[in-house]
Specification:
Helix content is about 35%, strand content about 15%. The two termini are about 35 Å apart. It is of the alpha/beta class. The chain is built from 13 helices and 16 strands.
């Protein structure tokens, strides 16, 4: 690599990072390589990664199976337009997604990121009702504490405050929001938890195209885990009032919550399903939006005659090929046992931190561990300290959390939980 200072200086002067200021940029650490769950910095230090690169690198880094799939596909073609053409990687990936997801989800629309998958889902719902000559059904009902992405349609259904897009609230489509579920995963169900959403559906179903939510796990809006019965009630209410249900499983799909898809905790099926992140094992950006034959054929029967969306890199062959390999790698591994072991270790090593005076809550589900602080963490202070301790975590708000690769070893996970305990003790 070039001189570290030269590299970081250019970065800080010219490159934007996620949710960062170009005026007062946060520190960055140059990476030279990554292997397994370890990130090697340009200065020679190694960090154990507890983030799986924002939850997508479920097999760890530089996996030989995924490397081979990518190299093999490169020899055939890196990209070809999906308009009027098709190819084996897209067909094979579509076949796997249809087989893995429950009936009646059998139509697949590929896109290039999770946020766009949500945009596609929203457009599907809107165009569905237009085709049924009910264009008055043009709004969406979402949940407080929810997060669905950074593009405009997706921003409109994020929590207006915790969804990180309050700045744009006056410019976004006006949507409806129900309170976030309060019954925790594993706790007793309280039927009143669904009352507010039920009331909103009763009052507004004639203008609602769809309900959109993250099943079981509310991710970047607060890392909250809620009761599966909530999803069962949502399904019943949507059916009763004639409203579509969109499940955003971009963060939870492919095993993160302990089930292959989080909706399986409640044994329910949405009308539209969004997938992304872990689909390619963290190699390339790819997403998919699945729906039923009924929804797909209905929306295509309208005046447009087709679905009005088509990304340039839709069904990119490289991304599809590595996704096929990633899904096969996951299904041929003992992923359930691995995630159960991660969950057990996280409970044993994080739950005691709830006794600390600065901690308000600790929660664990599948391969997700969350320590919620009473006050917002100072990222510019805590992240360098975590790097000193040899780990890579990216806290936000009041949350210090873990979403590691499924292949992480016991000692590596222990190093992560120990580092969290250390920074909390020093707080």
């Amino acid at each position: 690599m070039q001189d570290i200072k030269t590299l970081t200086d250019f970065d800080q002067q010219h490159l934007w990072h996620p949710y960062s200021s170009i005026i007062d940029p946060s520190p960055v650490w140059p990476v030279s390589s990554a292997q397994g769950v370890r990130i090697r910095l340009a200065d020679g230090r190694e960090l154990i990664d507890g983030m799986a690169s924002w939850w997508c690198a479920i097999h760890g880094y530089n996996h030989p199976v995924l490397n081979r799939a990518l190299a093999k596909q490169t020899e055939q073609m890196a990209h070809v337009m999906f308009g009027g053409l098709t190819h084996e990687p897209a067909v094979e990936l579509g076949r796997r997604l249809v087989n893995l997801t429950p009936e009646p989800l059998d139509k697949v629309f590929f896109s290039d990121s999770g946020s766009v998958a949500v945009e596609v889902a929203i457009k599907m719902a809107l165009q569905y009702w237009q085709a049924r000559e009910q264009s008055g059904k043009h709004r969406l009902l979402s949940l407080r504490k929810g997060y669905h992405g950074d593009t405009f349609g997706a921003m409109s259904v994020c929590d207006p405050v915790t969804g990180m897009h309050e700045l744009f609230s006056g410019l976004l489509p006006s949507q409806l929001f129900a309170p976030a579920p309060t019954c925790a995963f594993g706790a007793d169900w309280d039927a009143t938890d669904i009352s507010a959403l039920a009331t909103l559906l009763e009052q507004h179903h004639q203008e609602l195209a769809a309900v959109i939510l993250e099943p079981i796990v509310q991710g970047a809006g607060g890392m909250r885990f809620y009761h599966p019965e909530y999803l069962r009630q949502v399904r019943k209410l949507c059916d009763h009032y004639g409203v579509l249900w969109i499940a955003d499983e971009i963060a939870t799909g492919f095993g993160r919550s302990g089930q292959l898809f989080a909706c399986e905790h409640a044994d329910v099926v949405p009308d539209i399903l969004c997938l992304g992140k872990a689909m390619t094992g963290g190699y390339l950006s790819l997403a998919a939006t699945l729906t039923s034959t009924h929804v797909a054929e209905t929306l295509c029967s309208g005046s447009a005659g087709c679905f009005m969306h088509g990304p340039t890199f839709m069904a990119n062959p490289l991304a599809c090929a590595v996704s096929v390999a990633s899904i096969d790698l996951l299904l041929n591994s003992p992923w359930q046992q691995r995630i159960a072991a991660i969950e057990t270790q996280l409970r044993a090593e994080l739950v005691p931190l709830a006794n600390h005076a600065t901690v308000t809550d600790v929660r664990v589900l599948g391969a997700i561990g969350v320590v919620e602080m009473k006050e917002a963490v100072d990222l510019c202070q805590i992240q360098p300290r975590l790097v000193e301790l040899g780990v890579w975590l990216r806290p936000f708000g009041r949350l210090i959390y873990l979403m590691p690769a499924y292949v992480i070893k016991t000692d590596e996970l222990g190093a992560l939980t120990h580092a969290i305990g250390q920074v909390i003790a020093e707080s």
